[in-house]
Design goal:
This protein is an alpha/beta fold. It has 7 helices and 9 strands, in the order E-E-H-H-E-H-E-H-E-H-H-E-E-E-E-H.
Length: 232
């Protein structure tokens, strides 16, 4: 398996955002994971209080900026089978942008996402991709903190699957993994994305990788298919 691009080099964002102070909105900041429960309780007063129904201009600008950085680093290369593309970011690339890099080249018959927590506008974004036919089936695997600490976001997830029962499922369990895996059967395209970041804005250095490999896709899908949710 190859790592990085074809000349063996990796992709870095270490110089982007260095020395800058980036403070995202309170409803999009993830709690410190080492003190998850106490921090979550302290921040509940700042959580979103109403459903997100449209993508804000701020969100779209941020996502566009994030995607441009990834695309520039990738040099618009075609994602190749049995290749891993590695990234290190300086808090200026959103987790969901890795999936957008894939969607720029392939629509997906199936995609799973796994995260500890997830922002409202990111939920709306993946819903829109489903409704546009970019992703035909979508399973979401969420951390046990999600229903209690992100009530509006959890309601949005439930509403999506109530309105689109054919779309897939949402499962809540003791989950701290940050993963995407998906495929396009006709094109023989299978991938896995592994990141250190949750699906929300995070002004911290994070790493991520996109691996084009059927074995990795099946590895993750087999595992998550066996998950039993705390929530029904």
């Amino acid at each position: 398996m190859k790592f990085g691009n074809q000349d063996g080099t990796g992709f870095g964002f270490g110089s982007f955002g260095a020395g800058q102070t980036q403070v995202p909105p309170p409803d999009e900041v993830e709690p410190e994971e080492t003190t998850a429960e106490t921090t979550a309780q302290a921040k509940r007063a700042h959580r979103r209080t109403k459903e997100c129904t449209e993508l804000s201009q701020r969100y779209e600008y941020r996502r566009a900026f994030s995607e441009v950085k990834l695309l520039e680093a990738m040099q618009y290369v075609k994602l190749q089978d049995h290749t891993t593309y590695n990234f290190i970011t300086a808090g200026d690339v959103d987790s969901l942008s890795y999936l957008k890099v894939v969607l720029n080249q392939h629509d997906l018959d199936y995609c799973l996402l796994s995260t500890w927590c997830m922002a409202a506008e990111d939920i709306l974004q993946v819903r829109q991709w489903y409704e546009q036919g970019r992703i035909k089936k979508l399973d979401m695997y969420l951390g046990e903190i999600f229903p209690g600490s992100y009530k509006i976001e959890w309601q949005m997830v439930q509403k999506f699957y109530q309105e689109h029962p054919e779309a897939g499922r949402a499962a809540v369990f003791k989950n701290h993994s940050k993963i995407y895996a998906g495929c396009n059967y006709d094109e023989g395209f299978y991938f896995g994305i592994q990141t250190s970041a949750n699906i929300n804005t995070n002004p911290r250095t994070e790493q991520g990788s996109i691996t084009v490999d059927k074995g990795l896709f099946e590895f993750y899908k087999d595992y998550f298919d066996g998950i039993r949710s705390f929530e029904k």
